[in-house]
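Project outcomes to date are best conveyed with an example. Our students and postdoctoral researchers have been running inverse folding experiments weekly, and each run begins with a structure described purely in tokens. The record below, which covers 326 residues, was selected by the lab manager from last quarter's runs and is presented without edits.
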């Protein structure tokens, strides 16, 4: 049954990601079309506790669909994860008389929202925003497509110089707990090897390739997810130098360029759909659920299940990478 929602709160929380602005815009414009007011709080949960807010009108979200970052700013708030912090935030909700709340963020932000729901009765839904794509309940998170396109573009450039000098490049990408950025960009760039937190014998596999490399390849790209247990790109390069002293090895850490930049077309569309569905979900009385898109269809995952899907890489993707980069 459709309920009457009159005023909703909105935050972006956790690490920023490209496409968050497109999602904010979709939420605000959908809400305006439905006659719903939107209060945006700055810096995620910090802004709720401090009652630092802005009334989000349709003009406020003009010209942002193509911009990276988040106009609402974001934070990872330790203060909020305390009883006092949550009580404080609940008072702000009361002050504004909210009857809906949307969080754009990752699993930490949803855990926070779930816990926070014990302190208020405002219906809450989330849109998945993280470059890592490591959440259960959606095929793609907001920020992932842009990040892998950024990585692909950067590695294409690295490949040019690697090929000219017959070098090995060890490239570190983000992914504290997940190797999804590494895996997808590795397939896209034809990387010769990857090291990811989900697979434990990556190093062995990498070193087993050195004989073939000697014969067949002039440049080699090794992609390391920052969360891999070997300890990152510099450690991996040391091991390669020891094992294969005849190769010239260089390291590139791509870092936060993966988090910024103009969102891709796919990102803008996905983020817009999720924003639209988030407002609709509140009207349909969904509560404590994350909006996701799976096989092109909207779906709802309870916050308590929208956790990181560590260890859930499709093993066939790894086989495909190995075959194609032989
Ligand atoms: O969770 C997204 C992410 O970009 C991770 O891949 C990375 O480990 C982390 O955030 C870095 O966070 P920050 O530099 O904002 O502390």
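After processing, the design step wrote out the following sequence:
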């Amino acid at each position: 049954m459709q309920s009457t929602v009159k005023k909703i709160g909105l935050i972006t929380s956790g690490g920023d990601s490209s496409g968050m602005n497109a999602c904010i815009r979709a939420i605000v414009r959908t809400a305006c079309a439905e006659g719903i007011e939107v209060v945006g709080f700055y810096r995620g949960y910090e802004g709720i506790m401090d009652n630092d807010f802005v009334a989000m009108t349709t003009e406020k979200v003009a010209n942002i669909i193509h911009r990276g970052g988040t106009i609402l700013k974001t934070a990872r708030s330790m203060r909020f994860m305390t009883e006092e912090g949550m009580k404080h935030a609940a008072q702000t909700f009361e002050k504004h008389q909210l009857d809906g709340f949307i969080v754009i963020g990752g699993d930490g932000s949803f855990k926070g929202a779930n816990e926070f729901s014990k302190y208020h009765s405002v219906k809450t839904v989330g849109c998945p925003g993280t470059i890592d794509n490591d959440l259960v309940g959606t095929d793609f998170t907001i920020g992932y497509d842009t990040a892998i396109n950024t990585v692909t573009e950067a590695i294409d450039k690295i490949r040019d110089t690697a090929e000219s000098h017959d070098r090995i490049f060890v490239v570190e990408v983000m992914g504290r707990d997940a190797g999804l950025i590494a895996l997808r960009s590795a397939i896209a760039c034809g990387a010769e090897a990857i090291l990811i937190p989900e697979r434990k014998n990556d190093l062995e596999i990498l070193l087993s390739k050195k004989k073939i490399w000697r014969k067949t390849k002039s440049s080699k790209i090794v992609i390391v997810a920052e969360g891999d247990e070997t300890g990152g790109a510099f450690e991996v390069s040391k091991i390669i130098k020891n094992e294969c002293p005849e190769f010239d090895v260089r390291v590139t850490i791509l870092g936060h360029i993966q988090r910024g930049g103009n969102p891709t077309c796919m990102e803008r569309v996905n983020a817009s759909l999720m924003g639209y569905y988030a407002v609709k979900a509140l009207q349909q009385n969904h509560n404590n659920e994350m909006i996701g898109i799976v096989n092109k269809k909207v779906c709802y995952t309870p916050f308590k299940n929208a956790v990181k899907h560590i260890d859930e890489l499709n093993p066939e993707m790894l086989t495909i990478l190995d075959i194609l980069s032989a």
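The longest strand covers residues 167-173. The chain has a mean pLDDT of 95. The training component of this project remains on track.
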